[in-house]
Amino acid sequence: MRNRQEQISQVVVTAVQMRHIEERIFAAGMHVAALMEKVAGLIARRIQDIYPNFGQEGEKDAGTQRCGDAESKNVSVSLRLPLFASSVSSPHFPSLSSSIRVGILVGPGHNGGDALVVARELYFRGYEIWIYSAFSKLKELTAQHLQYAQSLGIPCYQEISQLQDCDFLVDGLFGYGLERTLTDPIAAAIDRLNEWNKPIISIDLPSGLHTYTGEVLGTAIRATHTLCLGLWKLGLLQDQALDYVGKAELIDFDIPLADVQAVLGDTPKIKRITPATAFSTLPLPRPPVTHKYKEGHLLLICGSRRYAGGAILTALGARASGVGMLSIAVPESLKPILVSHLPEALIVGCPETETGAIAQLQLPEKTDLSSFHAIACGPGLTKDATAIVQEVIASDAPLILDADGLNILAQLGTIPTLQKRKATTVLTPHTGEFQRLFPDIPDPKHDRVLAVREAAAQSGAVVLLKGARTAIANPQGLVWINPESTPALARGGSGDVLTGLLSGLLAQAVTKQIAVEDIVATAAWWHSQAGILAAQERTELGVDAFTLTQYLMKILSNPKV
Ligand SMILES: NC(=O)C1=CN([C@@H]2O[C@H](COP(=O)(O)OP(=O)(O)OC[C@H]3O[C@@H](n4cnc5c(N)ncnc54)[C@H](OP(=O)(O)O)[C@@H]3O)[C@@H](O)[C@H]2O)[C@@H](O)CC1
Ligand SMILES: Nc1ncnc2c1ncn2[C@@H]1O[C@H](COP(=O)(O)OP(=O)(O)O)[C@@H](O)[C@H]1O
Ligand SMILES: [K+]
């Protein structure tokens, strides 16, 4: 069972794929109404966990303007409230002396149907329910649920302003069926309710977001929670959606794995990185009889007189990877400071340019670039180190390029330059570097997954596109997305730490036949988990890049899988 849950948590779907999976379930005999009951029942229970109702016993009056007609009627509503009366405080509801008032936003499709089943369930659990439904045409099942809700006396409004006094809102306007840009009056209603700054729980995805790209289609609900149904929708894992998604979680409603596999294939093309996937490679296994050169020999080429810190941070990231042997090539003048920070590493002082960049690599005798299991090149180099970058690209060692390594590659021409390489290449750009490297690929701001996949296919490299939701693609089109991180990492030097960690892991992985994209995904996960843990203990402001390096080992020593 755990295995099923794990597999489900890795799956990421588009709207089309979700619809095909759903069609298989219905074709197999599950009735759509029964599935909606099941799913919405799970949502209602989760909402009760998030916002428990400590209501007062009693009766309430509610002024009702019925949906579908303009007349206003006053109907007395008898609420079935819990037997215990209490006055409690919560972070969301400073003083709760009566039941919680929930605004339910109902759209025309089955997302609206889900919301209406939730409305009914919460109503019977003692919540006070007010419905907003402004569509003249509803899908049949949704219309039936609305009719039943109204028969219970639940008030239903066509004006969003009527819901302003609700304690929180449930967003069932649109789910994965939204394909067109939202227009008024619904767009204006969404803008209005966003201004209220109320907690909003979105069903499946915040209404207004594109299911695949996470793009805002005109306007969108700014949710505090998103309860994603059945399988993760790709749009929720795109950076541009994150301002709207809030805390996202999956409501697993037992979609059979066979149906998922029938639609996505045995090896889905887009996967979420989970703790279990990361720990399938961590800690890297080490046989009892081994030696340092068998456990990965990594060469870092980094730093300049101007950027000494980048070299130290990259090296500290590599140290945390457990790599067997760490060699670090830096400009001669940086050698003492590197030695003092990393006494275990072999520091190779290199001749410098006038500007303090590495002028040429001067490796120890009997060592050439092919001696290394991996080479990482770039952090702090400056653009004056072009010759060095050309030299490592020409080598046959697995290569990680970052920072100025990427900027120099972009100047050389990314695709023709990399075409000559036979060994593995990993590129780790942030969005700006990505655009310089791949000017012909559509801006990743629109669709990061599409962009990173295209970049990997064109360049033949494994590409890690940094961001709030880092995405990694291999040239065959497989994409890994890192679903959890923290803005605490948006801080100078944290990318250098990732480069070091990733390079150290890659140097070990090549000796252990682990797929490159898998170890890159593991590195991205490990790095962000360290950021999350550090932010929990020290606040988001307390995660400088050096501190981050100190948290890396804590993730391995206290695994929470
Ligand atoms: N997957 C599953 O197994 C399960 C799925 N379930 C639920 O079903 C949801 C999907 O339901 P859905 O297909 O009815 O689509 P949904 O998102 O509710 O809305 C589409 C409606 O909006 C309309 N419309 C579109 N764009 C518009 C616009 N710009 N402005 C205005 N209107 C617009 C469009 O109508 P149209 O105008 O195109 O005819 C259509 O009627 C899913 O997210 C989940 O919550 C669960 O109940 C059970 C398990
Ligand atoms: N908002 C964010 N949320 C989560 N992670 C972030 C965010 N912004 C940046 N990061 C992560 O921080 C790191 C920043 O790397 P980079 O931009 O190369 O910084 P630097 O060059 O200063 O080291 C990347 O791993 C990136 O994924
Ligand atoms: K929704």
Structure, described:
The longest helix has 23 residues, at about 515-540. The chain has two domains: about 1-270, Rossmann fold; about 275-555, UDP-N-acetylmuramoyl-L-alanine:D-glutamate ligase (3-Layer(aba) Sandwich), CATH 3.40.1190. The radius of gyration is 27 Å and the shape is elongated. Strand 13, helix 10 and strand 14 form a beta-alpha-beta unit. It has helices at about 1-10, 15-25, 30-50, 110-125, 140-150, 185-195, 240-245, 255-265, 275-280, 310-320, 335-340, 385-395, 405-410, 415-420, 430-435, 450-460, 495-510, 515-540, 545-555; strands at about 10-15, 60-65, 75, 100-105, 130-135, 155, 170, 200-205, 225-230, 230-235, 245-250, 270, 295-300, 325-330, 345-350, 375, 400, 425, 460-465, 470-475, 480. With about 550 residues, the protein is of the alpha/beta class. The protein has 19 helices and 21 strands. The model is unreliable at about 55-65 and about 70-95 (pLDDT under 50). The chain binds ligand NPW, adenosine-5'-diphosphate and potassium ion. Adenosine-5'-diphosphate binds next to helix 17. Potassium ion (K) binds near residues 174, 205 and 207.
Give the biggest sheet: 10 strands, mixed
User: Class of the largest domain in CATH?
Assistant: Alpha Beta
State the fourth-level CATH superfamily of the largest domain.
Ribokinase
Distance between the termini: 15 Å
Protein name: Bifunctional NAD(P)H-hydrate repair enzyme
EC number: 4.2.1.136, 5.1.99.6
Subunit structure: Homotetramer.
Binding site for K(+): 111, 171, 207
